[in-house]
Design goal:
Radius of gyration: 22 Å
Shape: globular
Oligomer: single chain
Order of helices and strands: EEEEEEEEEEEEEEEEEEEEEEEEEEEEH
Strand content: 35-45%
Helix content: under 10%
Number of helices: 1
Number of strands: 28
Length: about 325
């Protein structure tokens, strides 16, 4: 199969099976853009490649995911990933505050807390949660969310929804003054108050496939890797605006998505030809580097062998974004 790329962005295609085990060709285009506050995103000169596998902040399998693989058949919802620090309003350390991500009309909020611990009181024979201490920033990774794993009386305990987190496992025989780190990211209205409870971990980066945070049983639902609060139903409008609150030193950061429409033109061996609109299904925001990576995708049924796969961009949309 020949590939013709008429885009200013990297692309890839790969073969897999659909949810009914039928052969499928998946076309992916990925663009990297520079964030300028209050402006529509513009492509950067040095484009990031399509990712065949997950990348991590630290050790694979033992740290939060920086970027998930782009090689999935389809996504029923739009994934939004955010790599950022939560910044206290006004730049002054605070004990707690809210951070928000707004994409179009959809908003997700998070409660940010300073450092705190559960401390065991021997006199009262129970764990007591400290008040959070003021901090200027908090990393928004799953290590700071509720969860964790550890050994208790020789038996391993794992919080399946987030083994990287903290607060799920405590010593079976604590001594007075023992401490367990408490999470610093919560979902508003759902405070984490007890050790070992069943809470939804809060986070803004990608989840692991086997965490089971998503209850959706729709076809390809497992391909969505964003936190449930950052999976937006359907398509995000190509010209939607994104606003981040308390996720940058300035406090508020906004930018517009470029109104591009990516298109695949499929030329078959039998002479047939079929155009298809690619769907923007992944928005990965990197605040420290002031960049956004956008991923468009189109699954193509292989009812006939493909001779040429063309990647194109609608010229009117490109003109509107310039």
């Amino acid at each position: 199969m020949e590939t013709r790329n008429y885009l200013p962005f990297p692309n890839a295609s790969y073969r897999c099976r659909d949810n009914r085990k039928r052969p499928l060709l998946v076309a992916v285009a990925k663009g990297t853009f520079k964030i300028e506050d209050g402006k529509v995103l513009k492509p950067v000169q040095e484009q990031k490649p399509v990712l065949p596998k997950d990348t991590y902040f630290g050790e694979p399998g033992a740290s939060s995911i920086l970027r998930p693989s782009d090689f999935v058949p389809a996504k029923p919802r739009t994934d939004v990933f955010v790599n950022a620090l939560a910044h206290a309003p006004g730049g002054k350390p605070q004990a707690q505050w809210l951070a928000e991500v707004q994409v179009g009309i959809h908003t997700a909020a998070y409660k940010i807390l300073g450092r705190r611990n559960w401390v065991y009181s021997g006199a009262e024979s129970r764990w007591m949660l400290e008040d959070p201490k003021p901090v200027p920033t908090v990393p928004l990774r799953y290590e700071q969310a509720y969860g964790g794993r550890g050994e208790v009386d020789g038996e391993e305990k794992v919080f399946g929804k987030n083994p990287l987190g903290t607060g799920f496992v405590a010593p079976a025989h604590p001594s007075d003054g023992d401490k367990v780190k408490a999470p610093q990211i919560e979902m508003p209205g759902y405070p984490v108050t007890e050790l070992g409870g069943d809470y939804l971990p809060a986070g803004l980066c990608a989840t692991y496939e086997d965490w089971g945070l998503h209850s959706d049983d729709a076809p390809y639902a497992a391909c969505n890797r964003a936190h449930p609060s950052l999976m937006f139903p359907g398509k995000v409008p190509a010209d939607a605006w994104v606003t981040l609150t308390n996720l940058s030193p300035e406090g508020r950061l906004s930018f517009g998505l470029p109104p591009y429409q990516m298109i695949n033109l499929v030329r078959y061996v039998d002479g047939g030809m079929l155009p298809g609109a690619m769907v923007l299904d992944t928005i990965a925001i990197d605040v420290p580097n002031m960049e956004v990576q956008l991923t468009w995708r189109l699954p193509i049924s292989l009812n006939s062998e493909v001779r040429v796969l063309e990647f194109r961009m609608e010229q009117n949309a490109e003109k509107n974004a310039s």
